[in-house]
Write a structure and sequence with these properties.
The protein has 76 residues and is of the alpha+beta class. It is built from two helices and three strands; from the N terminus they run ββααβ. A hairpin with a 3-residue loop joins strand 1 and strand 2.
Length: 76
Amino acid sequence: MEVKAKEFSNEDIVVTYEPTKCTLCGICAKELSEVFSNSIIPWVNLENTNTDRIIEQIKKCPSGALEYYYKQKETA
């Protein structure tokens, strides 16, 4: 059975989660529990802190299961 990546977004970024890469070490939930949760669904809530803190935490993901990219800003 193929498991597809999950996507979560706020006004600045899109966070992708690839469950097949995740080693379940829990660093994300331990260090930034207001965004990443082991017990609440959806387990990623990007509205609970600023984008810079989320990016810092994603960069600490040892498996690379969490990644992000910036949304393109619409021009008027």
